[in-house]
Amino acid sequence: MHATTPERQEKGRAPALAPSTKPPSTSASSSCCNPREAPDPALLLRTVLGSSAWTAGERRGGGMGSFAKLARRAVETDAPVMVKIQELLRGATNVMSLAQGVVYWQPPESAMNKIEKIIREPAVSKYGSDDGLPELREALLEKLRRENKLTKSSVMVTAGANQAFVNLVLTLCDAGDSVVMFAPYYFNAYMSFQMTGVTNILVGACDSKTLHPDVDWLERILKQDPVPKLVTVVNPGNPSGAFIPRPMLERISDLCKKAGAWLVVDNTYEYFMYDGMEHYCIEDKHIVNLFSFSKAYGMMGWRVGYIAFPSEADGFHDQLLKVQDNIPICASIIGQHLALYSLEAGPEWIKERVKDLVKNREVLVEALSPLGEDNVKGGEGAIYLWAKLPDNCSDDFEVVRWLANKHGVAVIPGSASGGPGYIRVSFGGLKEEDTRLAAERLRRGLQELVTDGMIQ
Ligand SMILES: Cc1ncc(COP(=O)(O)O)c(C=O)c1O
Predict the structure, then answer these.
(1) Which of 103, 179, 434, 456 could in theory staple to 428 by disulfide, Cβ–Cβ 3.0 to 4.6 A?
(2) SS3 at position 96
(3) How remote is the CA of residue 29 from the centroid of ligand 1, in Å?
């Protein structure tokens, strides 16, 4: 992949995938603010009639005549790539998706049966403890000890790992702080920084062969003054599917510790390991680990994740609690019960499903082969392959659109993750039979792309 220097990423981010969502500067708002200009009669009418005379678009601040300005924090945050892909899919017919990071299975049947029995209990409809249901937290502490060897961590249950990440950014970073991530990065983590005003995002490169982060670069960047506040990695990675070996993560941790930076490790794909590789976690007073129920237990829509944070870090919990209390208050109670019951099914239940993904991965690696063997990477863990498009395809979103419209298959453009000219292919969302059908389309599309280009 392209070497991604911090300078390039800071000053000239990957090209936007679609026209910017920045609102047009409205003549109404400027005439409103400038007393020397004659007032817009339509505005006067609205003032008389009140805001109910506004159109829905205007109320959102996106249309003509809005008095109010949208926050720069939000406006300058990247648009969510999955929403763009969903729009693309809505416009096309009969498209198979290898785009979204999902799994095809449902939560454990035994857990679903138990949920049915408690749905009408009054406690399910009330708020619960901000930190999470006590019985779930207890089960998670036990799971963290037994499976992840984390013994000095406390736990907070969140509405998924994405909300956990936003909680952490708000708890650990101030607007204006610098933070570190590595490209290709998880797009939602990048957006979490952007929308909280942490816009000094230093993006390091990953090795073009292994997709492992450039730790020598990290060593240099952590000597900056002021020191970056936080370093984050996903292991195994989204979108790369690469797995950071323990000695490398330990070195990253040591560098962060020495510099006084937080290290946030997103373990959303802890169970999605292949070819005999074993997931691990590391623990220290500057390390925070994130987890999710979404993929492991097929619980994407139930919104449950959790944060394992260092018990000994002074004030951590008190500050985290303020953020939690203002965003979800607590994760959905019924979702937390399902999580608790799913834990009873345990890792064996997950592994049984994950092992079948190996076939999907194989089928899709083959489908990507027109791009050349050396251009297809990842898939050591998680549910992703990361593939380089031919050199003349720097507009990866155009390729994605073409693949969907002409060949009926959707993938994610790499530029959403700071990797323009690449695509991310997910092998978790379809059963083997459907994966084969989608793979056939992908192969045909890529073969045509390589030999003839994007013929409409
Ligand atoms: C690395 C990573 N973190 C977090 C999430 C979001 O997980 P959740 O559904 O728990 O919010 C995803 C989902 O794709 C992910 O890939």
Answers:
(1) 103
(2) strand
(3) 38
Backbone dihedral angles phi then psi of residue 229, each to the nearest 5 degrees: -80, -30
| Beta strands at 409-410 and 96-97: parallel, antiparallel or unpaired | parallel
Cα 304 to middle of ligand 1, angstroms: 10
Measure 100 CA to ligand 1 centroid, in angstroms.
11
Say if CB 101 and CB 428 are below 8 A apart: yes
Check residues 46 and 261 and name the one with the higher pLDDT: 261
**DSSP code for 40:** P
CA of 104 to the centre of ligand 1 (A): 15
Nearest-5° Cα angle at 429, 244 to 241: 15
pLDDT digits (tens, 9 = 90+) for 421-437: 999 999 999 999 999 99
Determine the distance separating the centroid of ligand 1 and the alpha carbon of 234, expressed in angstroms.
10
Q: Which residues fall within 8 angstroms of residue 171, CB to CB, at 6 or more apart? A: 316, 319, 320, 322, 323
DSSP assignments along 247-312, one per residue: HHHHHHHHHHHHHT-EEEEE-TTTT-B-TT--------TTEEEEEESTTTTT-GGG--EEEEEETT
Substitution site in 238, 279, 424, 427 for ligand 1 pocket (most atoms within 8 Å of beta carbon): 238
pLDDT digits (tens, 9 = 90+) for 362-389: 999 999 999 999 999 999 999 999 999 9
Q: How confident is the model at residue 65 (pLDDT cuts 50, 70, 90)?
A: low
